Amino acid sequence: MRKVARLAFILLLLRLPALAQKHLWVLRPAGEMVEYDPATFAVKQRVKLPAEAVKSPAGISVNQAGQILFAMVVSLPLSEDDVAARKVWLWDGHTATMLDQGVSRKIVETGSNQAVTEIAPVPFLSADGKHLFWFANEQRRLEREDVDLSATTTWQAWQTDLSGGGREDLTSTKSPDCRCTTGSCEETCPVATVWAPETGLDKLFVMTQFVAGQTTPTYQASTIYKDDGGKWNGTALPDALRRVLDASADGSTVVEAIPDSGCCGWSNQSNDQTIVHSAGRNITVYDEQATYNNPDYDVSFYTANARLSPDAARIAMTIIATAKANKPIQEAQQGQANPEESQRIRKSLAELPVVSVKTAEATPQQVVSLPHASFVGWLSDKELLLVENHLLVTYNLVTKARRKSTLRIEDAERVFLP
Fold first, then answer.
1. What's the CA gap between 114 and 106, in Å, rounded?
2. Structural domains counted in the chain
């Protein structure tokens, strides 16, 4: 027994350096961000966040330097709430400050028309904690009697110091003049969205231009930007990416989710997929129809999040759905009653959320499937951090062993592992 205990202790020590590189933060219901030691789950520090952050955890980001940013994502066209004084809350690792987000709208009379200029910056933490990155769509629209006539949109990227000063422009893209044929520029004119690593932006980000449309978005083009000695160079990707979930540090591997095209009250009108783009190959690691065979009912099973392992050899995903097992489920728009399919769907819904881990090879292999769990992040190439039955748990892919904490978690969105 002593030899077994000694071996277990040695294995723990061997694992500690990898864990020490990780920072585990949890947003508690009282509005505190609490940092825990990933190896022991002991409390390391507490930081009080603004009340708004508790209601909108999606606006929180944490980097490897231990900094915390809270900012609401603002998109065009701006609403009245958007143009109100927007502030960014930043914990720099020592003190908290409030920064102006720079959201603005200006209106100028131009003959019988109005020229409306709007800008909606969104800040990102840097990985090294030395500055902030900012991305913004700036759009100039011509309007007449609240009807959009045309628009010109410029997407911009810049960085600042932690106070928001010392702006340094990085890159920009101006879209051609766009005629708003439907009377709404949102439905016909492109804007850009940016994906950056959850651990803080370092050397890479992905920009995608898309049109929101009347019912479903149209994705036009994606560009991957890399820092080359202080100069950011963009490389156009072969196809537009719909929803970027993760990417390797060098950008050679990108994980994309293809969402359901359902609109107008329908959830299941196409096939949700998650694809790993690597070395010119498109590897499907999740396929809704192949997994759940659910064409006749209006419930969509999709990937909520996904992260590559540190060695990029595996991918972990959380699968959720648009319906609950104990709620009525209507037939799909083109579906037919199918009792066997209905029973199978309800059985699958009762197991959600599910964490699925697959290999990221040409023919992906299932490593493990864990019901009633949500994926948070990788502690190492072999160990996952999960929220399982509302408790924070680590899971080892090799030994299949769990290490359970006593930390009760409302949902995985409130756990951060930079």
1. 10
2. 1
Q: How many CB atoms lie within 10 A of CB 104?
A: 16
Of 8-17, 53-62, 163-172, 233-242, the range with the lowest mean pLDDT is 8-17
In-domain check, residue 26:
no
Residue type, 138: E
Answer whether residue 214 is part of any domain.
yes
- Is position 157 within any domain? yes
Cα 233–Cα 150–Cα 171 angle in degrees, nearest 5: 15
State residue 91 phi and psi, 5-degree precision: -105, 115
pLDDT(294) > 90 = yes
When the pLDDT of each residue in the chain is averaged and rounded to a whole number, the result is 93
Residues 257-266, mean pLDDT to the nearest whole number: 92
Question: Among candidates 390, 384, 383, which has minimal Cα distance to 414?
Answer: 390
| Total Cβ atoms within 10 A of residue 344 | 15
Q: How many CB atoms lie within 10 A of CB 48?
A: 12
Count CB neighbours of 233 within 10 A: 12
Q: How far apart are CA 358 and CA 105, in angstroms?
A: 46
Token look-up 């006539």 returns 149
- The CA dihedral of 146, 151, 156, 162, to the nearest 10 degrees, is -10
Its domain, for residue 76, covers 52-241
Residue 20 burial (CB < 10 Å; 0-12/13-18/19+)? exposed
* Residue at 205 is within a domain: yes
Long-range CB contacts for residues 370-373, cutoff 8 Å, separation at least 24: 370/395, 373/318
Q: Is 117 exposed, middle or buried (0-12, 13-18, 19+ CB in 10 A)?
A: middle
399 alpha carbon, distance to own chain's centre: 30
Residue 5 has pLDDT above 60, yes or no: no
**Cβ neighbours for 267, distance < 8 A, ≥ 6 positions apart:** 260, 298, 299, 300, 322, 323
Q: 102 falls in which pLDDT band (50, 70, 90)?
A: very high
